[in-house]
User: Which sequence fits this backbone?
């Protein structure tokens, strides 16, 4: 290869490299390789299978379907519609909260929302909806409508020392820009599909995390007081973010940076 064509080739490679980096959420080549490897061989799969055993011992698919008043066959579509209003709970609940209800109904110890057991069981339960599309309906009833309104308020509320809100970094006019090297993600895009891809394995933390716990990690980073898991505000936030991903595919466990 002549000197000239070599330098042209190098320029092309550099251009290609930067376009590629853009697409892969500003990951380095090494990170990208690790990401691809984890997609094939997700460490969270182990937690999923542990979740299956735990869930089986707690209530099982048939018992759960009965408790929620749906047929076992309808379970995947039903699960794709969370968070949802559940009559027996008299409120809008997350999938994790229905596991707490299941434990209570069986007279068993109710697992904490923060517990590793809860993560594993929620991951298993959600995985039953893999291949479905997120199908939460914010107009289903007044309770969902109210949670959507509250969730929007929480998402946009400026808090903490720096007066930041979720919206400061995740609003439609700012997503795609960078903050300390990280691309600000569009939570509703098909690529992120946040509500459909959590629980996910986080490479940078080497751990599997629930969607609401991921919210808390952003709160930590942005110096916002952490909203407790299971609180009305936290469930509302999940409703609001889930609504952004309407119609996106569910595929858990996800892999995230
Ligand atoms: C200071 C900016 C900032 C604020 C404020 C912020 N985030 Fe984030 N958020 C980020 C960045 C940057 C990432 C991507 C980090 C990465 O790639 O590791 C992210 C990632 C996320 C993700 C994961 C996206 C995915 O791939 O599924 C979710 C969900 C999320 N944020 C929700 C929230 C919520 C809810 C709030 C408000 C409580 C919030 N964020 C506040 C910057 C912010």
Assistant:
């Amino acid at each position: 290869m002549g000197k000239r064509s070599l330098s042209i080739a190098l320029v092309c490679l550099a251009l290609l490299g930067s376009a590629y980096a853009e697409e892969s959420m500003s990951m380095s080549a090494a990170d990208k390789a690790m990401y691809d490897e984890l997609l094939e061989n997700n460490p969270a799969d182990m937690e999923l299978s542990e979740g299956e055993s735990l869930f089986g011992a707690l209530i099982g698919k048939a018992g759960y379907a009965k408790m929620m008043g749906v047929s076992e066959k309808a379970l995947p579509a039903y699960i794709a519609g969370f968070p949802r209003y559940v009559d027996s709970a008299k409120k809008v609940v997350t999938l994790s909260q229905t596991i707490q209800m299941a434990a209570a109904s069986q007279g068993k110890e109710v697992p904490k929302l923060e517990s590793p057991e809860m993560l594993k069981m929620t991951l298993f339960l959600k995985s039953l909806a893999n291949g479905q599309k997120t199908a939460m309906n914010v107009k289903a009833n007044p309770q969902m409508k109210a949670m959507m309104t509250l969730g929007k308020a929480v998402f946009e509320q400026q808090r903490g020392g720096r007066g930041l809100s979720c919206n400061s970094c995740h609003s439609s006019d700012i997503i795609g820009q960078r903050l300390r090297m990280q691309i600000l993600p569009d939570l509703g895009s098909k690529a992120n599909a946040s509500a459909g891809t959590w629980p996910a394995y986080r490479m940078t933390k080497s751990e599997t995390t629930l969607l609401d716990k991921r919210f808390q990690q952003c709160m930590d980073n942005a110096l916002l007081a952490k909203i407790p898991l299971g609180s009305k505000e936290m469930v509302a936030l999940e409703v609001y973010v889930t609504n952004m991903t309407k119609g996106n595919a569910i595929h858990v466990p996800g892999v995230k940076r």
